[in-house]
DNA sequence: GTTGCTTTGTTCGGTTGCGGACGGTTCCGC
DNA sequence: GCGGAACCGTCCGCAACCGAACAAAGCAAC
């Protein structure tokens, strides 16, 4: 069976054989914490379905998202950069499943295969750009653009056009108030880009959503397609 | 002579011998552009003195900073991640000098030495955290905290307590208006944390500046000291 | 179909920072 | 010592967003 995870799917046969024996299928329920800040990380996780957020937990109890991982990559990229801990939390934001591999086994494989190393480091690059785009989006882009960007990033990482999110959740991810999210959703919905229902948002037009996201969306995804391969499986939904 | 650049200084003797012959001293004048977006990058640059910003250039002509490199690292980390181009611009924000190495020579050295690879990838990790902290700071932290963070980051990367910056420049780096910078500087100065003169800011108390920066400052620097070594050379200025 | 919880819609006043502009000051070159 | 440029301080009206709160609507369980 072909892996749903894009990174695993992109492996050469030899690299696949190197990792395969160490991969273990796991469930990733909603809210499951993959990594706690400063805690040693035992497994790298390749997500097949679902979404995982990397967030900073603030003293005041709030959380701010800095990165998003889905079937495009692994959690956490930092494991490839010589560290077993990170100062952020990783948790499942949309339930799904994936495969895990013990960190020592991952390290051995990466040490043994230059092509594997190259592929994984390229993913790190796309992730770095994604975080940089988050920084850019957070610097002044209006809530509506940030919302559009986030919806697109979610959309990129799953099949179909229905996204499961509440306003409350989006408000945390975007670092804004919930009413701000409500207003932004109405605007996008009024323009016909999405259709919002209780706990669910349907993407009606990716193309126009990308316009709405402005420059906050694009660079990370371009980088991914350039360095690794197609991000979305299916065709774009019609404009 | 011991390298001023922290990464080069941290090299083992063998790794130093590997890179040394390929290093070429260069001047880095103010405003010098090291990397243009999407343009192929011929050299990796290890900065000895001065400061280099990684910025996103917006359509409207504005620029937003996503990362800062000084004697702590190299420009650009992305070269270690299997790409020869990045979607951002790198330019010298404070003049200085450094050493450059042609990318193929860098790649050869990194391929040949696992310890070199490890060290450099650890630097990538610290840079990734720095960018993540930028995202966090940009998400709602008031201008004053962001200013404090930026001053500390500059201070970390040079000797002495005098920083050469104008309000105008800071406003670009922080993504706020110049008057907002002026007000924030007055606040910090009023509290006795800094002393501002025309085109110059003197750090009077690092410790209290770190307080003022809140949670925006710290994680990236902790990560650096944990993975690589001391960031600042000299002792902290008295509180 | 009623109860209770979750999610969504809306309101109010207040604050921060924006865009733009103007005047004052320091510094540099001549 | 003078002129000009760069830099700093301040003001205005305005828009976005915040914090808090409350009301309505969808959904689920019984």
Automatic annotation (TrEMBL), chains A, B:
Give the transmembrane region(s): none
Q: Which InterPro entries match?
A: cNMP-bd_dom_sf, HTH_CRP, RmlC-like_jellyroll, WH_DNA-bd_sf
HTH crp-type domain spans which residues?
A: 141-207
Tell me the Gene Ontology biological-process terms attached to this UniProt entry.
Answer: regulation of DNA-templated transcription
Which is an annotated Pfam family here? HTH_Crp_2
Q: Which UniProt keywords apply?
A: DNA-binding, Transcription, Transcription regulation
Q: Which GO terms describe its molecular function?
A: DNA binding
The record's listing under PROSITE patterns reads:
HTH_CRP_2
Q: Does the keyword section mention Transcription regulation?
A: yes
According to UniProt, the name of this protein is: Regulation and Cell signaling
Species assigned in the record: Methylobacterium phyllosphaerae
Q: What is the lineage of its organism?
A: Bacteria, Pseudomonadati, Pseudomonadota, Alphaproteobacteria, Hyphomicrobiales
